[in-house]
Amino acid sequence: MAVRLSARLSQIASYIGAGESVCDVGTDHGFIPIFLAEQGGHDPVIMSDVSKGSLAKAVSDAEEELSGKDIPQARLGDGLDVLEPGEVDDIVIAGMGGLQILDIMTWDFVKTLSYRKYILQPRRDSAILRKWLEINKFTIIEQCIVPENGRFSEILCVSTDGAEARDIGFYERKTLLEVFDNDPDLLARYEYPDGLIDPSETGIEMRYFNSELDKSLIIIDKIRQNSEAKDALDLHLARLRRLEKLCGKKN
Ligand SMILES: C[S@@+](CC[C@H](N)C(=O)[O-])C[C@H]1O[C@@H](n2cnc3c(N)ncnc32)[C@H](O)[C@@H]1O
Predict the structure, then answer these.
(1) Substitution site in 11, 51, 81 for ligand 1 pocket (most atoms within 8 Å of beta carbon)
(2) Which of 48, 89, 168, 193 could, after both became Cys, cross-link 75 (CB 3.0–4.6 A)?
(3) By three-state DSSP, how is residue 158 classified?
(4) 49 and 100 Cβ atoms separated by less than 8 Å
(5) pLDDT 10s digits, 117-168
(6) What order do you get walking across the sheet with 45-49 strand by strand?
(7) One domain, residues 93 and 138
(8) Global pTM?
């Protein structure tokens, strides 16, 4: 039986080109590696997770789904530790927070750069991830928005071409957060960047911006009623300005 992926996972898989080898870091259920192994031509396909239970389940699902075919290699461990430098072309890191993704990518930056492409799907803190990718000269090939189960997922397809190995660590991340703290309009521009595409071409990016705008209005209203939360007002007003611009409601 052919493996069916959700819109989010299908979009992530679409960034893995024919013949490209891949490791899905934090695979959990193993859906993408199982799909790619069934498709064939991506040797090796590796699935990894820090959770023994998740990986064992992914292996048993792979054995069931792929009966008679090669199943993805399963590796237990943290982030890129499970790989040799340059062992695969592409790395998928999906369904984690942006800061967790940064932890994985900054642990051994030289190793990080030994792979050609990253497909990243941050569940939150995408702004800091984008800023870090920009500072370190990664190339964002494409970034898109995909709906799944009533929420919107941001997916970034990123090339290491041109990226430079630098000594990155906790202090740089702290500095990045401070840059955004001092400039909420900048943060809003990185949260809701220009050029976010909708692969389905059905206006999903506008639905996303409009739903974020509605959320902003509700939050601003709540903050205005609560004198103790006023510190957050500048950030939410900046988000609102950015979203109104993207939705064509203000210049
Ligand atoms: C929410 S699930 C996402 C699963 C799948 N990638 C997806 O997008 O549907 C996050 C998975 O990442 C794993 N994980 C978290 N931190 C990790 C790390 N540093 N290295 C490897 N796996 C990690 C967790 O154990 C969990 O299975």
Answers:
(1) 51
(2) 48
(3) strand
(4) no
(5) 999 999 999 999 999 898 889 999 999 999 988 899 999 999 999 998 665 5
(6) 73-76, 45-49, 22-25, 90-96, 117-122, 151-159, 139-148
(7) yes
(8) 0.94
